[in-house]
Write a structure and sequence with these properties.
The protein is mostly helical. The protein has one domain (about 5-375). Helix content is about 65%, strand content about 0%. The chain has helices at about 5-25, 35-45, 45-60, 70-95, 100-110, 125-145, 150-180, 200-215, 225-230, 235-260, 275-285, 295-305, 310-325, 340-365. Helix 1 (about 5-25) runs antiparallel to helix 2 (about 35-45) and helix 1 (about 5-25) packs antiparallel against helix 3 (about 45-60). The radius of gyration is 21 Å and the shape is globular.
Amino acid sequence: MKKRIIGLDLVKGIAMFLVVMLHYSFYTMYYSDGIAGTLVTVLCVPCVPLFFMVNGALLLPREKRDGHYAKVIRMIVVMLIWKVLAALFFVSVGSDGQVVTLKSFVTYLLGGNLGSYPTGYFWFMNALIGIYLLFPLVKMAFDAEGSLALRCLVLVLFTFTVGKDTLKLVLQVVGMATGHDFASIVGSLGEFYLFGQYGYTLLYFIAGGLIKQIVFDQEGHADALRLRLARWKDRRGTLIVTAIVCYGCTFLVQRFQHISQGINLTVTDGYWLLPTFVGSIAGFLLLCPVNIKDGIAKKVVTTVGNNTYGVYMLHIFALVIFSWFQRTEAFYFMGGLPGYAATLVNVACALVLFSCCCAVSALLRRVPLVGRLFAL
């Protein structure tokens, strides 16, 4: 059995709950879209960056892996099975009369959405598989001592994701203040970028690998920059303040987008922005070195970390079913709660759903054959 890194399990568990919480705000009733609800959904923005950083931390610092593409094929097969199960579920429970044609179903299997059914969450697996297909090349650049290739790759990824979209945001703010459209100036920069709309996921993947190497494998890496960065893991106060400031900046971005574009709860291009990037790194550096001694806490963290894939695949089903129950009289009281009270109740409900999905995943992964659907 592989030795588990408790800090990475903790990151995975927190990130997975934030995913459930974010989707909860979209797919259920009675969630407040005011300040209280937004404070929670903005907190969820680093969920995807943290997941890709964990994947990078687990894969990039390892020695050579045999059977890499065999694993990719297994991932694709398992994902296709989940897509079929999701399609059967949503078509069966859907009440809007959508007709699924053979063409739309094949398009869905190949990475698209199934009409307006809530199947968009599969984008994460599409992006992860894309990274796995490129993994041998990224791994070569990562392993090369003083790798110019890795530095160039990181620079390109950063420039055309975090850099470009943060600059675009700044120009939007300036444009709103002056009454001119400056943001469109950088609109065509994507023409020089080959990694597509999810290229930022590769940036977080590499960042996770570098941080894992810095935090856990300092010996033998005498590079001055790495040694300076390694010391940051001991600066917990600075990291906490950094994470809080980044969260505050992201909240202000959301408020700006709410005023200028009428956007509620979400942050457009939130995964790309500089506060998210810095805040995710700060949070990862804080959590990655955590070590919990034997006991109930360690067992809980390990169990959750071991079942995040199953939770991810199950949680939309759970949210749809929960939304049915919210139509009953037992939940009418939530509609009359003030914003902050409603938000607290919704967070509690999301935690219950998260726990239920985790328990189901933990049970089903013990079942022969079926368990393979819950182990990535």
